[in-house]
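Listing S7. Sequence submitted for prediction.
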Amino acid sequence: MKNTKDPLKILYLTYGRVSGVCRSLGDALSHRGQDVRIVDVGNEINYRTKKYLHLFKHRNLWNACLAIAQFGYDWRRHYKKTSFAFQQMSRAAEKVLQENSGDYDIILQSGTLFSPGTDFKKRKYFLYLDHTYAISRGYDRSEGLRVPLSLPSGWQEMEKEVYENAKKIFAYSVHVKNSLINDYGIKEDSVVVAGAGSNIEVSSLEDKRYDGKTVLFVGLDFQRKGGPVLLKAFEIVKKEIPECRLYIVGSNLRVRQEGVIVKGVVTPSELAPLYESSTLFVLPTIREPFGLVFLEAMAHGLPCIGTDIEAVPEIIEDGITGFIVPAEGHLALARRMISLLRDRPLMEKMGRAGYRKVSTLYNWDKVAERMLREFQDSAHRPDRRQAES
């Protein structure tokens, strides 16, 4: 039995950068004295290398053909979501686990695009999820957005098996927990809402000024993140508050609209000053697995306006840390933007409330703490499946 004071050896399996989550969570676990090794099994089936040479490996070329046949023009986005990719990454995970046999206490895995090895049903492992396929399958068709993803029944069965055999599933949100329970039949006590954190450090609000005229939008997928809705709303806002300006970050697009400043894709070091100089964050997203960017905004003391979808209302407390508006409703969005921009004391009150929420609840140290409680419990209790085998 492992001593409670000894660091746990955590093998963290992932399939890519996952928006910086793996690095941030790995660092938080390490800061709490744990021995964390992050392994990207997605490298085994990846065409995104210099000059696409990796694509011409047999398995990658085959998977590219499958992805094109299944997803059409959108194949690059969903390259790792074929059944073949699932199997290949699972084999890569098996190889890693066998090579490190006896040298880890905990298996932690990001998502379910693969299983923790081909022999996963005999292993004790934990999952960390921001979404499920069932959620995305239930999306309504929206003009200008991609058709909801359709994956074959074989892939769906593999996904469900990985859920069913997990020791515990850590969910970013209650929304994901409810999907696991209602859509997949997972027992409620097998799912822990662990939350998530900002990948940008919480800054001091000592010099924060709320000028009432600087709005910030951050999103790579302009359409899905509600960019067109925001532009419509901003036309109304600009008429009421002529000095107002809107910074658009993450999307390279051409916009000829008064007061709109497109910054395009920026580095984290370039993004931080934009958070610091802005006084209102708006993301009228139409589809959103979680919304880490809201946490980044709150970490800089910004009140937030988001939509009434998925986990967004869990992050933004309506009337406390910002406002929740209907998705695709530019008139309601404009009203909320105007009311906040004209009320600097309220902006500051909400911004500071969001800052406190990120400082005390939505941060990677708290996520690591919640996970470690489950890890420690598991590490000091014999696994039922192993005992029965």
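Caption to Listing S7: primary sequence and predicted structure tokens for the chain studied. The chain has 14 helices and twelve strands. Residues 201 and 343 are 27 Å apart (CA to CA).
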